[in-house]
Records
---
Amino acid sequence: MLKNKIISAIITIIIGIFIIPLFIQYTYHLSYGVYGTAFTAPAMLIAIVVSILLEKYSKNKNPFLMYIKHLICTLIFALLYSLFNLDLFKDTFYLTFSIGSIYITIFVIIDYLLKNFRN
């Protein structure tokens, strides 16, 4: 289980390098994705821990319900992160939640595919 989560996180970060620049500037620069990874990679460590806890303690293993639980955790994380930037709360919350929901969607899909194809 942990190995699948780590592989999913690494693939998500690699894909995220190409997604982050879409949110940063009017022009697409891959360097923004590389710089953005410095902020999103530690968040993926939190996603791995939360995902393991959700999978371990959830009674209902429905993939869609697990995805909704991951999105709720992303919402909570975005709110907590945005509280540190109260002067820019609206912009920070929008950016963190949108990138976080994209990341967690990719993470859950890859984790689900790895889990079903490896067994």
---
Amino acid sequence: MIACGGCVTYSPDHVANAARMVGFLDALERSVTEIRQFVIAYGDAVTMPGRRPDVDADGTGRQAAHGPSRPTEATALDERRLALHDELKNGVEQLPYAVAYVRGVSASMDRALAQWEGEDASLHSPGGSEVDHYHGAASD
């Protein structure tokens, strides 16, 4: 629906945009569920020793050596464990932006709906229309 002064017109892409939005929300929910499962797996991985192949990687078929000579150091410096740590850190740094964007979309939609219903839209966001979405919306 598009307002044009005293008239109101209906946008032909309104239904298509609503359907796209539902599709995006479904994808977002699936992604959040997947990330939550990764975080749980990462939490378990931190407390477990790294996995070792049963056979050497050189393809000779020899049994892999078991038991590092310095297990604490080998665990702490395990490249695979460090990769998990790096990705977890990356997620902690990036997800606040995603939360802020999503909350920003929600707040904007709420204000537009409030305005359509004849309410004062500035009452639907802290501080009126000037909202710091990164720090304000994702600070929970």
---
Amino acid sequence: MPTALDELLQAVCTVDRDGQEAVLAQLADQLLAAADILEWARNHAHWNRLPTEVWERLRDATTAVTQVAQTVAEAAPAFSVRQPTSPTTTALPSPPPTPTTSAAPARR
């Protein structure tokens, strides 16, 4: 699997289902590496006495990227699951009825 994000984007459009899982797994790894870089930046922001807001924003970004990486890693295996050969129709839940207002004509 390619490691550059732009190459991963190209690969995801051209690979089979197992390849899609591999692309997503690679993306999760890349996101974890990005989280490591953000943590490095956060530490340096603290050591360089940058404004607290910078440190806090980098902390929040690190947390968010880590969560996204975990979600992608957990979702990736679903892309290699083999679907049944004959499609089955699964009924989707019906949307709730839209309220209609049938106001009676006003009496005079």
---
Amino acid sequence: MKSGAPVAFAASIAVPPGAGQIVAAEWDFEGDGTFPVKAALPRRAGATVTVRASHSFTRPGTYFPALRVVSQRQGDAITPFARIQNLGRVRVVVE
């Protein structure tokens, strides 16, 4: 991958039965723990969803972009209670 070229990301997310619904998904492309990019979710995402994003890395190096997904038992995106978070990562090498 050349620096400055867009990289396409896609993630298929599934929540186990009884764990609720997906209420948030956030990307951290630079791997710094900030998760500044909110993924677009359907109004009622349910227990499965696919999210997509594109990002360009400006400098050569090895990056570990992450996607943080949050589910909530009742599907309430606002409450801070009964939320379960999980991370997925991938390695990207930029020349």
